[in-house]
Write a structure and sequence with these properties.
Helices cover 62% and strands 10% of the residues.
Length: 164
């Protein structure tokens, strides 16, 4: 159990909340997949807090960054690079296009394919989100520690590449 879970479990008293019993996580407490999911959720929520101040959804950050770093990227390439299937990426791209952050142009040689580029508004939004992401990353770096960061990121990359 994480520290924050035990703190939550001990709450009660004057707040009108019933005292929560500690949760028995059983084998989940030591399973990598469960702890990876919990860490991802905590990280996403923290980044949400930073990006809410600029009125943007943190889930759009990676999409904007990948488009910015790869001008003219096809949606299928973006899907593979972001680890999202096309059916979940398409609404994200459509939202970014509708909001004027991304432009989508058909590929002349393949009328089913689109190339994506950021608009000026998209570049401005990405700059604001990058500042929020850097603040968030500094907090993650503090938690992981500079000595362990490279190994930790390499392990995450290996998990993503080799998992079945």
């Amino acid at each position: 159990m994480r520290k924050s879970d035990s703190k939550k479990a001990d709450r009660g008293g004057g707040s009108g909340e019933a005292t929560m019993k500690p949760i028995d996580f059983g084998p989940l407490a030591t399973w990598v997949g469960f702890n990876l999911r919990m860490a991802q959720e905590a990280s996403f929520q923290a980044f949400s807090h930073h990006s809410a101040a600029i009125g943007e959804n943190p889930g759009r950050f990676a999409t904007l960054m990948l488009i910015a770093r790869n001008p003219g990227i096809r949606q299928t390439e973006l899907s593979a690079a972001s680890g999202r299937d096309k059916s979940s990426l398409t609404p994200v791209v459509e939202d970014l296009v509708r909001r004027g952050l991304v432009e989508r142009k058909r590929v002349d040689s393949d009328r089913r394919a689109y190339r994506l580029n950021l608009t000026a508004a998209g570049r401005k939004t990405l700059a604001l989100m990058t500042r929020a992401a850097r603040k968030h990353e500094r907090n993650l770096d503090r938690i992981i520690g500079p000595r362990d960061k490279k190994r930790f990121v390499d392990t995450l990359k290996r998990l993503a590449a080799e998992i079945e």
